[in-house]
């Protein structure tokens, strides 16, 4: 796979001082794929047809790509793919908009804490592509966003996610990409928030989720609260057996909430307007703490009090963001409420 064209000599190659992975992704999977392809093609004379041998060779070569570990370091992010024109058509279908309530400085690293997860996090494509001009106009700094591990084992979907700059949501991966200088977007509610998705309701799961606050404190990285109005209305959902679905999600780390979208094309989301609103960044530490640690200090393990204080500020900021915009986006009335779990 070719990468985007090299930058002009006058443009800096790494304007944000991003660091490469400490352990470069081994490329032996490429040679394994080529070897599998050649060996199976040699079996063509003894097989039914060249077509059969070619199909087997292609599948064998593709399955070898699962030796690739770039889903842990983001080394296959492809800026050219993120800026394809097709993403503008996608944003047009969803009537997508991205609103930044304050300008986001691309020189500053951020953790974007996003809600709601919805059925398929379709709003994510509004900010990790340039379909709404977010990457080119609002925040051009490269991001590596966290995604569920299982997604990187689904054929062909994993390639799309890797090219869009998604990485595994493990704690070690999150620490590594922040240490390298990348910003990141995290869907805080995860699969539990996905299962609780209901049309016309706004439910977020955030009270038991404090890991992102620890990340922000350890890397001195401001948190940007993000809410996507309309995400929960993209599918009709089956709102029974929620307890069983939550048990399956907690036991097997998988969530398949029953849902349907466009008639006769149930996996296609309904053409509901989706607006992503980004709030004002929250500094991890507002001043000197109990142990004499001032804001701006990296690499120090945060105390429980510091984590709780930042988490409380985040929940309050998310509530303010929702209340300030609920009457203008997503078909919500001024009386709509945000259910925080």
TrEMBL record:
Q: Where is this region: Disordered?
A: 282-302
In the Enzyme Commission scheme, what number(s) does this protein have?
2.3.1.-
GO function terms (MF aspect): diacylglycerol O-acyltransferase activity
* InterPro entries recorded: DAGAT (IPR007130)
GO (cellular component) term, any one: endoplasmic reticulum membrane
Q: Which UniProt keywords apply?
A: Acyltransferase, Endoplasmic reticulum, Glycerol metabolism, Lipid biosynthesis, Lipid metabolism, Membrane, Transferase, Transmembrane, Transmembrane helix
Q: What class of enzyme is it?
A: transferase
Q: Where in the cell is it found?
A: Endoplasmic reticulum membrane
Highest taxon in the source lineage: Eukaryota
Give the UniProt record's GO annotations in the biological process aspect.
glycerol metabolic process; triglyceride biosynthetic process
Protein's name in the database: Acyltransferase
Q: Which family does it belong to?
A: Belongs to the diacylglycerol acyltransferase family.
- UniProt topology in membrane: Multi-pass membrane protein
Specify one Pfam family: DAGAT
Pathway involvement of the protein, from the record = Glycerolipid metabolism; triacylglycerol biosynthesis; Lipid metabolism
């Amino acid at each position: 796979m070719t990468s985007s064209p090299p930058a002009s000599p006058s443009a800096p190659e790494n304007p944000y001082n991003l660091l490469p992975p400490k352990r470069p992704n081994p490329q032996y999977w490429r040679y394994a794929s080529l070897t599998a392809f050649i060996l199976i093609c040699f079996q063509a004379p003894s097989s039914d047809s060249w077509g059969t041998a070619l199909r087997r060779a292609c599948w064998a070569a593709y399955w070898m790509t699962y030796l690739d570990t770039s889903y842990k370091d983001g080394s296959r992010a492809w800026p050219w793919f993120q800026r394809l024109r097709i993403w503008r058509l996608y944003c047009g279908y969803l009537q997508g908009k991205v609103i930044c309530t304050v300008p986001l400085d691309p020189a500053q690293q951020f953790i974007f804490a996003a809600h709601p997860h919805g059925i398929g996090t379709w709003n994510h494509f509004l900010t990790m592509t340039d379909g709404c001009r977010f990457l080119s106009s609002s925040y051009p700094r490269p991001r590596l966003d966290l995604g569920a591990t299982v997604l990187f084992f689904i054929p062909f979907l994993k390639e799309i996610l890797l090219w869009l700059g998604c990485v595994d949501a493990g704690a070690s991966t999150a620490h590594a990409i922040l240490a390298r200088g990348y910003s990141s977007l995290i869907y805080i509610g995860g699969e539990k928030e996905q299962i609780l998705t209901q049309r016309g309701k706004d439910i977020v799961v955030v009270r038991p989720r404090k890991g992102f606050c620890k990340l922000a404190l350890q890397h001195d990285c401001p948190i940007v609260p993000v809410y996507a109005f309309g995400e929960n209305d993209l599918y009709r959902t089956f709102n029974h057996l929620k307890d069983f679905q939550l048990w399956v999600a907690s036991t097997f780390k998988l969530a398949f909430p029953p849902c349907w979208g466009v008639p006769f094309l149930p996996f296609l989301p309904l053409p509901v307007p989706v607006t992503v609103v980004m709030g004002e960044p929250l500094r991890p530490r507002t001043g000197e703490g109990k142990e004499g640690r001032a804001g701006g200090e990296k690499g120090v393990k945060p105390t429980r009090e510091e984590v709780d204080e930042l988490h409380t500020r985040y929940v309050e900021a998310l509530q303010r963001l929702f209340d300030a915009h609920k009457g203008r986006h997503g078909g919500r009335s001024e009386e709509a409420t945000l259910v925080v779990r």
